[in-house]
Design goal:
alpha+beta; two-stranded antiparallel ribbon; 75 residues; 2 helices; binds zinc ion
Length: 75
């Protein structure tokens, strides 16, 4: 599935700005953030790797925790 993330409606043009993977909104310097890095070969999950607002990251962090737990049981 193709998702266009190049929408320019913010128009702020700051090259170093980060965009939240979950809500696609700009992450301001004063926002608290989480960096999520799925250590898995699953392409669907590695696409979710990146920076999130702390509150947007919550559901993903619980997925990650569950996966880490499974990996530990398998390995
Ligand atoms: Zn967000």
């Amino acid at each position: 599935m193709f998702i266009d993330i190049k929408s320019n409606d913010g128009g702020r043009g700051e090259p170093y700005s980060d965009v939240c993977v979950s809500c696609q909104r700009l992450i301001e310097p004063h926002h608290s953030t989480e960096h999520i890095d799925f250590q898995t070969g699953d392409e669907k999950l590695t696409k979710l790797n990146g920076i999130y607002h702390a509150k947007c990251a919550v559901p993903y962090l619980s997925i990650k925790r569950a996966l880490d737990m499974m990996n530990r049981m398998i390995g």
